[in-house]
Amino acid sequence: MPKGYWVSVYRAISDPEKLAAYDKLARLAVGPEGGRTFVRGGRVVSYDAGIAERTVLVEFDSFEQAVAARESAAYQEALAALSDGVERDFRIVEGLD
Question: Of 20, 36, 67, 93, which is most buried with the most CB atoms under 10 A?
Fold first, then answer.
């Protein structure tokens, strides 16, 4: 069964405090849903139309599990805390295997 991945690239962070509150709640939401965070911030080199901002990559055992985690009540609470504190491109993608 192919794995599922959350890929989030931040275009702009307008409220670091909201992002910090989101981070705490998102970690509590993702772990119990089976998510494993491989990238959270760190160095970025961007090419083409990319933006060298914060990038986050979270792996789940399946695409369906990744979608369910995004829709969970716990993650919705994290999103409420984040509110308008960032502008980002958030995607759930299916892996190859």
Answer: 67
- Three-state SS for 14? coil
User: What does DSSP say about strands 4-13 and 55-60: parallel, antiparallel, or unpaired?
Assistant: antiparallel
**Predicted confidence band of residue 97 (pLDDT cuts 50, 70, 90):** confident
Which pTM value belongs to this model? 0.92
Lookup: tokens for 4: 């599922």
Q: What are phi and psi of 85, to 5 degrees?
A: -75, -15
The 3-class SS string of 26-82 reads HHHHHHHHCCEEEEECCCCCCCCCCCCCCEEEEEECCHHHHHHHHHCHHHHHHHHHH
Confidence tier at 94 by pLDDT (50, 70, 90): very high
Q: Contact, 41 vs 54, CB < 8 A?
A: yes
DSSP 86: E
